Amino acid sequence: MSVIGIDFGNDGSRVATLVKVKKIGSGATGNQLTVLMNESSERTTPSIITYKGKQRFVGDTASNMRVSNAQNTIAEFKMLLGKRITDPDVTRYLKYSGSKIIETEKGELAAQVMYRDEQKEVTISQATATYFSKLKEVVTHSIDQKKDPFKPMEAVISVPSFFTQNQRIALFEAARVSGIKAFNVVSDAAALAMEYGFPKLDLPQITDKNAEPITVAFVLVGQSYSTCAIVLMMRDNFQVLSTCSSLDVCGREIDRRIADNFAAILEQKLRLSPGEVMNGARNRVRMLTAAQQVKKVLSGVQQGQFSVENVCETDFSQSFSRKELEEILLGKKGQDGKTPIQGSDGINMSDEIRRICAQAVTDAGLKSVKELNAVEIVGGSVRVPFIRTSIEHAFHPVQLSQTLNSEEAIAKGCMLTAVQLSPYHKGRTIKVQDILQYTVGIAWRKENESNPGIVGKATSQSSLTPERFLAVFKKGSQFEVTSLDNSISRNVSFKRTKPFSIVLEYQEEPFNRTRVNIKDIKIGGNEASIEQQQVKGQNESVHTVRAAISALRVTGSDLPKPNPDAILPSASNEDNKDGQKEMDKDKEEKPLERPVKVRVTLDRFGLAWLETAFIEEEYEHEEKIEIKKEKKQEEKKEEKKEDKKEDKKEDKKEDKKEEDKVEKKEEEKKEEKKQEEKKEEEKKEEEKKEPQIPQTQTIEPPEYEIKRSRRTRKITLGIQTGNKITLPNGIPSNAPYVDGSVYVPVCVGTGRDDVEVDKEQAQHNHDLLEDKTERELIDSKNAFEEFIYFQRERSADISSEGSFGNYLTVQEREEIDKDLEQGEEWLYAEDDEINDGKPPRTKETYQRRLFDMKKKSEKAEFREAEDRRREKLVPWVQQGCTFLLTESDNEEKYGHIAKEKKEKAKKDANAMTKKLQDLIVKQNQKKKNEDPIFLCADIESEYNKLRKGWQELLSEPKPKPPEPVAQPTAPTSASDGNAQKEEVKKEGEMKKDEVFEKKEDTTTTAQTGAAEGNDLLDDFGIETPGVEPTQPTSNQKPPSRPVSPK
């Protein structure tokens, strides 16, 4: 299973993973952290989805169609996750969106697009899931070279640190729908800390008490927001101390200000009403695209050109300088001193950057920026000189550094975090702690208060009783993001006599600036819901909170009664025995208050949950402990002695009696023995039927003492936050006491119901299959259309001898032209068939029709292929036969081969050559549109047989040389003897040369070359060179073989 890290951006996303590569030099394989490229060879995939016809286009393809199909395009949807239509950020986005954004009945944002010839509402969650499926394709295309949209993956996804619980859950569920199992959803600050600190092995050790940790400030200025984070870093331990973010300093705001500036200029030039240029979806996209381009140009030079085409039916171009851009970003006022200049909303971006940086330093507990060891800047917008200069002023005198890749750092940090959480990778353990951005607490009302329908913070003008609030997890609470099982749980106690309701909410205003009213749970049947309404005015006396995380209601008409053995808190131990009886008799008394505990959990996702509610009651537990008695050693010894004496006396008496009986009754023994034998047989039969029970000694019952102790029993209460009924650990609802605990049905709702998510996932997979089917159908249709025009063009081409039209007969050309004309009419008659009620065409329909059309030109294609193959085959065969005939005449190499064999081989080669010449003459008399006289495959097969026979013939080894002549007689004189020795020496050297020539020329193996050559050398009395028989020397030439010409 693939493990990836996703930097989910508002403008584009990047995917990082570990790729196996070979190390240079050693050849060993290792893992390399890499950001993958998509099909366009780009590392950034645009966050854009376009709907056209029956297809969905995602990424670079959708980006190219954004202007022409702006109304059906969804872009920059990351910041819309988990928000309402009335959110100020959503209202700002609607001014520059291409598609129409609405709110569904369930409160989700959705875009209205034309898809499959009907208007559909695509929720932001569904669009995100579709985009994540595209990122999965990037992974499968880069690693597996396959495009499997259903392949499961595991990932860590980055989010802004200010994302609320609703936004994180929406992102998590979108990933789940797309088939991505999210190990974690980490903030950008945590991902940057991991990427920055992972390769730094020189950081101070956490075990070193004298070492001072390093404090690093990360400033991220992206396309949709900016963040400043302060991180405390030690080796393999990184802690995020504080974060501060802003939506007013980002690349999108810079583009918007530039576009608004030139939109106002264009409206004055064309005398249009204010806002008319930016009203159209296409005009908005064109203006923002041109603004982005000129922003990039001004990042490198002082002067640029703002150019846009076809806006309000005109082309517009005007120069634009970096100084003018800085004035717009500074939010300067006009001549009246009140109205901002064109394109500016009055917010000074430089001051906003200084504010978030100063706030982050203060929240981290630092006295000054001088306590920072480094300031690292990342993000695409830090390339703008104005932004970079503002950051330098905020952290003066600390120098800025940019050691990380501005666009890939977060993706790589997410992948390194995934390695810590995945069971498929092993590495050194690193601990990263993130912080909670908002204070999370519980809001509730007293039991006897009126108007329990509204929960929230009461204003001073409100006549309603204010609710109670308890902060459970304060802002800045740390939680670990690199561990799977590291949740933080806290219990909150309530004294209640009956079921009640509470709300988990943010204490301060969340960053999304959503003003909502939180109404308490509606008590009705088994339903529980939270309604959110927009606040119309600031002076309205309502209970307002910024956002509610979840709500909990203890179900049932009454709380469970105490068990009979429970120790009541208001009674003593003596009175507690009859406490339950007294409660049953006196029902009119005040109900007993019971301490109900609610568990609140903060998990590694940064999500807080009302996990469960339970009652802990004490009861008296009785335990029996056995008392063991031991006898004294002296008493045991005396008893043993008395037993031995009694046994001896009895033995003597029995011996005397037996002697008397033997003397008197010798005769009766035989009869008695017979009777005894019969009795023994009867006893044995009885023993087989009934087992014999041995006699045992009576044991006194043991004595016990009772030990009493207090224990706690946990009773899990039924809670309700939705319509989903579950049980803890799968225990049935009627389960009795299990390990001292009572289990009651529990209803827990976390985000959307699992059934709804599974249903959406099934629909998402169905849409992916439809997209694949539609894509294959269009590819088949395009292939059919392409073949029609290609076949028509080449069948009419007779310009040269090798043209395809020359291989067609008149009848074949007429049939092909007719078939092509019918196929073209059929291709464009699809709509008429649908109107007539015929089923729509499928991929197989086009493929079958294409196959039939190709079949009619098979003969001509065969003739063309044979002609082109024949042009290469004939010269090759002729050159091969000539080479064989020439090579066989070499007497030095092949003089040992019998002449009969050579003549037979030459005769076969000459016959092959003559046959081929005759066939060529006859073939040249034929036209190109006639079938060939011979097939190239037959000629090639026949030539290969001839060649194989020649190879066997020429590789025949040479015979061994004759045995040496006997030594001559002794010389008569000294001079004759010396002359004879010189002749023998010369003769030996000549033989030696012949042997080496033989080894070079023969085509035999090493056994016939080296072994036989060594024998010849030994016969002449010359030393054999040290050459192994199986391997030729470096100076030895390879045996010459007949080589086929190319």
Provide a descriptive summary of the structure in words:
The protein has 1046 residues and is α+β, with helices and mostly antiparallel strands. Among the domains are: 3-248 and 352-431, ATPase, nucleotide binding domain (Nucleotidyltransferase, domain 5, 2-Layer Sandwich); 251-346, Alpha-Beta Complex (Actin, Chain A, domain 4), CATH 3.90.640.10; 864-954, no CATH class. The chain contains 24 helices and 34 strands. The strands form 8 sheets. The protein has a 7-stranded mixed sheet with strand order 19-18-13-14-15-20-23, sandwiched between helices. The protein starts with a strand and ends in a 27-residue tail after the last helix. Residues 449-466, 512-546, 571-580, 722-750 and 991-1046 have low confidence and may be disordered.
The major sheet is characterized as: 7 strands, mixed
Strand order of the largest sheet: 19-18-13-14-15-20-23
Q: How many beta strands in the DSSP annotation?
A: 34
What Rg is obtained from the alpha carbons, in whole angstroms?
48 Å
User: Spans of 5+ residues with little confidence (pLDDT < 50)?
Assistant: 449-466, 512-546, 571-580, 722-750, 991-1046
> How much helicity do the residues have?
25-40%
N-end to C-end Cα span: 49 Å
- How much of the sequence lies in strands comes to 15-25%
Structural class: alpha+beta
From the spread of the alpha carbons, the general shape counts as extended
Mean residue pLDDT: 76
Q: What's the total helix number?
A: 24
The CATH homologous superfamily of the domain at 3-248 and 352-431 is called ATPase, nucleotide binding domain
CATH class label of the domain at 3-248 and 352-431 = Alpha Beta
Tell me what the CATH architecture of the domain at 3-248 and 352-431 is: 2-Layer Sandwich
CATH topology of the domain at 3-248 and 352-431: Nucleotidyltransferase, domain 5
